[in-house]
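Ticket #185: bound-state structure for adenosine-5'-triphosphate.
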Amino acid sequence: MPSTALEASISVSNVAETQGFAQRLGGLLQAGDLLVLTGELGAGKTTFTQGLGLGLKVREGIISPTFVLSRIHPSISNGPDLVHVDAYRLESAAELDDLDLEASMATSVTVVEWGKGKVEQLSDSRLEVTLLRAGSANVGEELIFDFHEGEDEEPRTISLTAYGPRWEKSEALADLLNEFESSRK
Ligand SMILES: Nc1ncnc2c1ncn2[C@@H]1O[C@H](COP(=O)(O)OP(=O)(O)OP(=O)(O)O)[C@@H](O)[C@H]1O
Ligand SMILES: [Mg+2]
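RESOLUTION: The complex was predicted; output attached.
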């Protein structure tokens, strides 16, 4: 188990802020980085990934994969490519192996929606991003929703947990979080 390098949460008010933060995060990502995105259906994982794509300067067109589990968005700026995976429908380790993420890891930033518990072995470091609707809460076993489908002006809490040497060596993420917090004040 890699050790925790950083743990933090930010609050955003709408899609623009979610994507603005993700864009800035995308700007500091490097080839080999692994991001694991968690959050209920519609929490904003794909929306967040679109922001990452802007910051990474990769070919646009990031969408929710329906039948395709993995898509590669090539860099348009000599940086790493973005490999966007939706592991929601992945049913076995063999199916994951078929995606051959190892092969693209070294030259890409790999972002896996619903990847928790499935892709950690790909790297000794990872960034876990959890999106939580402000209006939803786990009460016992029941998930309580209080939101309007499709509205862009909904708050989210975005939690980040960074594991492993990649993030232990870097101050950039902590700096970004501080900057983001002070820019919202
Ligand atoms: N602050 C916000 N951040 C992100 N998305 C938001 C926000 N407010 C509202 N939304 C809306 O929530 C929805 C998020 O959908 P998205 O496809 O990104 O979720 P997802 O987590 O990828 O879902 P899935 O598990 O089905 O892949 C979009 O319709 C988006 O407009
Ligand atoms: Mg999605």
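RESOLUTION NOTES: The chain has one domain: 4-180.
TICKET STATUS: resolved
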